[in-house]
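RETRY 2/3 - previous attempt timed out on the joint model. Re-submitting the same 490-residue input unchanged.
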Amino acid sequence: MNQTIDLLQGHRSIRKFKPTALTEEQIQTIVHSAQMASSSSNIQAYSVIGVTDPALKKQLAHLAGDQNYVEECGLFLVWCADLYRLQQACAKHGVEMQKQYVESFLVATVDVSLAAQNAALAAESLGLGIVYIGGIRQNPAGVTELLNLPQLVFPVFGMCVGVPDQEPSPRPRLSRDAVYHENTYRTSQITAGIDNYDQTMHDYYRERSGGKLDTNWSKQISEKYAHPSRAHLRAFLDDQGFGFE
Amino acid sequence: MNQTIDLLQGHRSIRKFKPTALTEEQIQTIVHSAQMASSSSNIQAYSVIGVTDPALKKQLAHLAGDQNYVEECGLFLVWCADLYRLQQACAKHGVEMQKQYVESFLVATVDVSLAAQNAALAAESLGLGIVYIGGIRQNPAGVTELLNLPQLVFPVFGMCVGVPDQEPSPRPRLSRDAVYHENTYRTSQITAGIDNYDQTMHDYYRERSGGKLDTNWSKQISEKYAHPSRAHLRAFLDDQGFGFE
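RETRY 2/3 succeeded.
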């Protein structure tokens, strides 16, 4: 249809990279593209730390749950929700920034996500590969200390960027009807969509494992959500000055 | 550099649309592009309601704070964080989905944001224009009722999509140094970045208002954050089954 649609629809995460650093020009293009994403009332409530130092990358790879590609990729980006800059802007006018309850946390999380997705697509359009790393939330306090993040800054996710050393195929998604509703939410579309996707993913796993893996999507979800996860986040966010009242 | 980079870096929000409905093919391309965005552990914790019904659009425009373009655009998308589908997947295996504290809310918010940004770029690559509508959080309970959203579904933001009837220029952003740090967060870059951007935006507002508007970025931020905003969100999210413990 056009180059951008092909890129969007051809996305697959890369988890094996060649040991090639990004050029300064590539980094500039990626960051500039990120910055032009929409931002709620132009508050631009995010920051990004580009980690190039090998020792730092090694520590971050460990903190993210020993994910080697964090160390091996050309550039590791740490995407942060950032209310610190807004607090400084308020202070410049003698105003104490008011707690915005859940709203500020939400808006900063959306802002950083839109910017990061622009960065991902810019990188992919340059022939690079990416993978998001939620694992940095395993130890957000450790990441915060390592990168000297001030109060009101929260590392939401990481992103490996680099030259791909593998060529995986895109992973099948839920059917359109399981995700898209016209005018009203229909729970019947969800039930049918799960059954349909379970068959798709069952076949997908079986084929990729040479017949060994016998699972499906809802089974994996039920295993993942049988136990709470990252219960430390609330206390960490309270410590960093994000409020949920 | 390439068509995608040009598109990413040329983004501007559109707030005036021609009264042209989207074609079925356009909607399919946009939704398919959204679905291929990265998703945390492939949970795809979002849904999107495409609003085409004129009466519904009118009500949503009102709920969003009387934003006329919600009514006038070709398609209004309501992007929702969705844990309901995951709960149903768990139920299929007799598992009661466990509260994931802040983590589930966060992951669903990131998932929906990445998908929405892909949709925005797909639409723009087709010559359409978009604007994000955070205003639907003014009355999330009203939106939830209107669209029949079940428990564990939260309308995070809306998005107008349509044929542009204006040609605004991209808005200047913070300097790169105010947003991007190498290896460590430097608060000195923030202070300098705010001063620099204040000058840029002061000139930008003055030029666009024919000399009448005398403000800057930090002043606007300090006015916005002098008072709490959308304090109702926490109670709404508690009612919808999202937990922050």
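Residues 21 and 135 of chain A are 22 Å apart (CA to CA). Closing ticket.
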